[in-house]
Design goal:
This protein has 376 residues and is α/β, with parallel strands linked by helices. Helix content is 68%, strand content 9%.
Length: 376
Amino acid sequence: MKFMRVKAVIRKEFIQIFRDYRSLWMALAIPVILLGLFGYALTLDVDYVPLVIWDQEQSYLSRDFILNFNNSRYFQITGYYDNYPAMEERINTNRALMAMIIPPDFSYRLESGQTAPVQLLVDGSDSNTASIALGYAEAITGRYNARFIRDRYRRYGRSFNDPLQLRPRVWFNETLQSRNFIIPGLVAVIMMIIAALLTSLTVAKEWERGTMEQLISTPVKSGELILGKFIPYFVIGMIDMLIVVIMGQYIFHVPLRGNPVELFILAGIFLTGMLCWGILISVLTRNQFIASQISFITTFLPAFILSGFTFPIGNMPRPIQMITMIIPVRYFVSILKGIYLKGVGLEVLWPHALFLLVFAGVMIMLATKKFKKRVA
């Protein structure tokens, strides 16, 4: 591979991009439009909230209270723990949305007519789910209070004040603003759609215009041609990434608690995989219309439906959950939430980053291999 030939292809591609100003405008304007539209308009609902519990008393009354959550279709108890770090790890890795801590004097306070505080830790990085989950928890607690007061009145012939009081504490998104959850997820959706859509047309355009035969007749090798077409769109994709990050920071005021360098490095890995996916589509179809349709179907629908951005993956049927495990945008959404709102880095997000790295490597190899076969 010679850099001069790659540089020549890059220069040619940039000239075509700037000549086709409509496509360039689309590549830069769509992220702004989508971010503004969904950032203000999108609302979500969710069900079956994963809950972890630390029962410090383990008495009959504490188990009775937990049973109200266990029997509710709105909650799914995923584990019992005896320390804060274990529950924090479950929340950080998105395996629990809420953590409940029952104090050791729970029964004593209830039986003596005092208020028993129960701590509820909530992952606020998904603000819509957190808000609904808090409403569910408060409703269950209210029903428990009413039943407890009624039972004690029958037993002792006197009324009690509300015996139980939840003291929720929301992590990562204290104000529960939905845009703090939507914007990071929307960044992944925009990057996936724009990257695959732009590059899905690049090779097909050469075949339709008849210029691919000219490129084949030159000393440029297939790997050099793929790289030369990849780099200009990678630059545009990273500019799009910068635009949406700046908009999220200064227009929507979404906190960026993690390392921006890690954010852009991981975004570059994700972008590499999606750009090569678009090039692979273009190589296989050789037709701009078909390439754009396939690109749209394989990016837009998975990004919105199967990424966990719009619909919680935990609520999906098991076969669909298995399918989401091969959708790269699912892992990038988790990375963005982790870096933006939780402030975690590769020490937590490395499994997601590893999947994106493997996906990018596979796409690079497939795009190069298929292009060689087509040229031959």
